[in-house]
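Section 5.1 Outputs to date
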Amino acid sequence: MANSSTITAQTFYKGNRTAQALYRKNKALIVALLLIVFLFGLGGVTVPNFLSFPQVLLTIKLASFIALFGLCQMVVIAAGGDGLDLSVGYAATLTAVLTTRFMDGKNETLIIAVAIAIGLGLAIGLLNGLFAAYVKLPPLVVTLAMANILQGAINVYTAGRNITGRPSPVLRVVAAQSTGIFPNIVFLLIVVAAIVMIILYKTKWGLMLFGTGANERAAFLSGTSIRRVRCVAFIVSGTLASLIGLLLVGNMGMAFKDMGSNYVMPSIAAAVVGGVSLSGGNGNYIGVILGAVFLQTLTNLLVALGWGDAGKWTGFGIVLFILLIVYVSNRRKR
């Protein structure tokens, strides 16, 4: 009898420890999910039709674009070195205004648009990476300067002229249309998430990325080129941001000067809400996606309550401020 009680106690203890370990590992995901449930519940009580199925699907669709930009931030932040990329929205906008004219509503010219997007993104990311990783300027300053340069280029290109052209039908299908009741962009996000998880957790580059952010000295002693990894992270971010610019055109049906700039702050907030440590070394893209859904739900709720854009940006600011306080507090405890 005593033996049976001992075995039961040991089993319970092991199960409890396993549950605690799982909670610690997925704490950010659980918190983000609880926040989403809370906001949907609050919206359901205060706003008519907030929980209707079409409204929920629209929220997820709009959140998908934030999540894609959030991937850019996650890669750069995970590499450490206080990395952030403030140029992602402007890279997307420049790609959009340059490629819309080439596409002009034809699928045949989509390949040219994709080539322009990749080339532009590589150039922007490379410049950011060289100055941040090799010249060792603060990434915040480097990417802010790049954002202003890109905004200047957009203003020069669009000065005194209309942004003409339409996205290719393929882009419209992928970014704006649905299969059945589900937006196609959500299916694309699922594919992207699967590829990202494989690259980050199953490849050598993913291990080097997280290793560089977690412990720069240990990574260097193991033979990792810190500067190269961080430079590549910025190149990946710039290239992804430019390609997302094509999706924005596909979703909007047109290009305009500020179409991507509004995604910069939400992309950072989504990464932080999703549990990406600002000191680098970790990152779960599922968490970033949940962070994006949380932010889009918050936006929808504030707009529905009549707070408008002012309320939206105030909400983003408060969320970031609270998360930064928690982050600094946790660092001091260590």
